[in-house]
C-alpha cells in the first residue's frame, strides 16, 4: 500500500483511486484469488469508505466487504485482504456484506 501524501485529504474521490489501484495490484499479484473472487476487503467506518460513491464502486466491481462494527475504536481494520475461507471459520462472529447489500453513504457521484 501507499502512504497518503502530506496535505492530501482522504475523501471519497481519493479513496476510490486507492481502491482502483488496489484492485489492479490484486489482479497482478494474486491472479488465482482475482479469478475466483476469493478475497474480501476489510476497512473501518471512515466517512470516505462509507460514501455512496465508494459503495457504488464496490458494487460495480463485485468486491465483497467485511463489515467493521460501528463505534469500535478498540478494533483496528487489518488494512489488507483476507480470503473467504478465513472468514468462514468465524462466520458467526463477523458479518460479511456481499456487494450490493444496503449501506448508506455520501451523495457524490
Structure overview:
- There is one protein chain.
- With about 110 residues, this protein is α+β, with helices and mostly antiparallel strands.
- The protein has one domain (about 10-95).
- It contains five helices and four strands, in the order ααβααββαβ.
- The protein has helices at about 10-30, 30-35, 45-50, 50-60, 85-90; strands at about 40, 65, 80-85, 95.
- A four-stranded mixed beta sheet has the order 3-1-2-4.
- The longest helix is centred in the N-terminal third of the chain and has 18 residues, at about 10-30.
- The protein is globular and about 35 Å long.
- The protein starts with 11 loop residues before the first helix and ends in a 12-residue tail after the last strand.
- The model is unreliable at about 85-95 and about 105-109 (pLDDT under 50).
Structural class: alpha+beta
Head-to-tail CA distance between termini: 25 Å
Q: Give the % helix.
A: 25-40%
Per DSSP E runs of 2 or more residues, the count of β-strands stands at 4
| Cross-sheet strand order for the largest sheet | 3-1-2-4
Q: Which blocks of ≥5 consecutive residues have pLDDT under 50? A: 86-94, 104-109
Number of helices: 5
Q: How many structural domains in the coordinates?
A: 1
Give the overall shape, derived from the CA principal axes. globular
**Percentage of residues in DSSP E strands:** 5-15%
Please trace the helix and strand order, writing H or E for each element: HHEHHEEHE
Question: What composes the largest sheet?
Answer: 4 strands, mixed
Radius of gyration: 14 Å
Mean pLDDT over the full residue set: 74
